[in-house]
Write a structure and sequence with these properties.
Layout (H helix, E strand, L loop, with lengths): L5 H10 L4 E3 L3 H8 L12 E4 L6 E5 L5 H12 L8 H6 L18 H9 L4 E4 L18 E8 L3 E7 L14 E6 L10 H9 L2 E5 H6 L8 E5 L4 H13 L3 E6 L8 H12 L2 H4 L2 E5 L4 H9 E2 L5 E5 L7 H13 L3 E5 L9 H9 L8 E6 L7 E6 L12 E5 L5 E4 L5 E4 L7
Parallel strand pairs: 1-2, 4-5, 7-10, 7-11, 8-9, 8-10, 12-19, 13-14
Antiparallel strand pairs: 2-3, 5-6, 14-17, 15-16, 15-17, 18-19
């Protein structure tokens, strides 16, 4: 695959979970990927191969097959891979990375468990684990530590590493998880490492089809539950019900899930319906880059001073309340981010908002119109408030209305920077 920007391409592949083999210096890959490193259990294999084929070095992804991949490449080159993982070198197995069909019941114990074995502890095996038969683990019938293999009805076979001086029975309870994630405006480079990790470990994906398409690289072999964009409450209820069954569920939003998005819908449902099965669910809200942040970054710093966000959709609140808030924000001289400005059914609200704003804003006030941020067809333009019409926007557009102090700087190419000064003198 040809590409122009090495760093951007490699980071995007890494974030998507794609194994990377770089025929280059190891240091280049290390420096390139350093900003996106987060969870060693989720990162893909990253291998550095010397240009002359004299060295193969697994750099990342030791728990996801990097050492095995490096060994296979080295074998083809008739050399030895530079595997440095002590546990694998000593025991010919990575206890933190069991094969398909097994999972760790207590992954946080695996590292200390291996460390104890390296220090001289012995291990007793309870149950059957054929994948361990080729290992060099210090097995003993009266081992000081125990590896117990049990079958759990909800998850299938699971490898339990039990850090105990004697064998103790292990009881596992499958607790459902619901992560409400924000993917950012659309581009993979704007997705946080935390969101990336969550997407890889999920069993089920719930969301509006357009948003699920943004994470399609993570959904292969997973259950996807698509729904219409206008049924937020039903979607939230479905995600909670799936998590109550013991699944690891991701509810996908674009932008930030807590800004006019699905996080609020989930907590609304929990508050209204008081379903006891939902109370035991572990719920995590993971932030994303909001549309207003991405729009601001595209033109400079229009949110450099006090600002607010107002949705122009009157589906969930009356227009009279929206108008009241526009008046208050305009009088206070906030920069205003308008979400949901125009839809096929709502065509007059933006013009009405402009009429209100013009009582306190000059017709020359900068307005940023950002559409399809981070997606194909992205456009960002800056126009004066006096020229703004409903034809400039749709539901994929976020608007930033400058304050009385917001300024523009003309650039040689004809574009402009927009910023709101930090020092505010009325």
């Amino acid at each position: 695959m040809p590409f122009d920007k090495f760093g951007d391409t490699v980071r995007a592949l890494f974030v998507q979970g794609t194994p990377i083999i770089g025929i280059c210096a190891a240091g280049i890959l290390i420096r390139t990927l350093a900003p996106v490193l987060s969870d060693k259990r989720a990162e893909p294999p990253v291998i550095a191969v010397a240009e002359d084929g004299s060295a193969v070095v697994p750099l990342l992804g030791g728990l996801t097959g990097a050492n095995d991949l490096a060994t296979a490449i080295a074998r083809a080159l008739d050399i030895t891979a530079a595997v440095t993982a002590t546990g694998q070198l000593r025991f010919n197995v990575v206890l933190e990375a069991p094969p398909s069909g097994y999972r760790l019941a207590n992954p946080d114990h695996a590292k200390s468990f291996t460390s104890d074995l390296l220090a001289g502890a012995t291990v007793k095996l309870v149950g059957e684990a054929p994948w361990l038969s080729q290992s060099n683990l210090p097995f003993s019938v009266d081992g000081t530590h125990t590896i117990e293999v049990t079958d759990h009805p909800a998850t299938g076979s699971a490898t339990h590493l039990v850090y105990h001086p004697v064998a103790l029975p292990v009881v596992t309870v499958t607790q459902g998880k619901l992560a409400i994630v924000g993917t950012g405006p659309g581009a993979a480079r704007w997705m946080s490492p935390e969101v990336n990790t969550i997407l890889r470990s999920a069993t089920d994906f719930v969301g509006y089809k357009t948003y699920l398409d943004l994470v399609k690289d993570f959904t292969h072999g997973k259950q996807c539950h698509e729904s219409d964009n206008r049924v937020e409450i039903d979607r939230a209820r479905q995600a909670l019900d799936l998590a109550a069954e013991g699944r690891s569920v991701v509810l996908v939003s674009s932008g930030d899930p807590g800004i006019y998005a699905m996080a609020t819908a989930v907590f609304e449902v929990i508050d209204r319906e008081a379903n006891p099965e939902w109370q035991a669910i572990e719920i995590q809200v993971t932030p994303g880059i909001s549309a207003m942040q991405a729009a601001a970054a595209a033109v400079g710093a229009p949110l450099g001073h006090d600002f607010c966000a107002i949705s122009l959709s009157d589906i969930l609140k009356p227009w009279s309340m929206i108008e009241q808030r526009i008046v208050a924000a305009a009088q206070a001289d906030f920069v205003i981010a308008f979400y949901n400005p125009v839809s096929t059914q709502r065509t007059w609200q933006l013009d009405a908002a402009k009429t209100v704003l013009q009582q306190w804003r000059s017709p020359s006030t900068p307005v940023v119109l950002a559409r399809n941020l981070g997606r194909p067809g992205q456009t960002v333009q800056v126009i004066p408030l006096g020229q703004l019409t409903a034809a400039h926007a749709d539901m994929r557009t976020v608007l930033l209305i400058g304050s009385s102090k917001t300024r523009t700087i003309q650039r040689p190419d004809g574009s402009v920077w927009v910023y709101t000064p930090r020092t505010y003198q009325p």
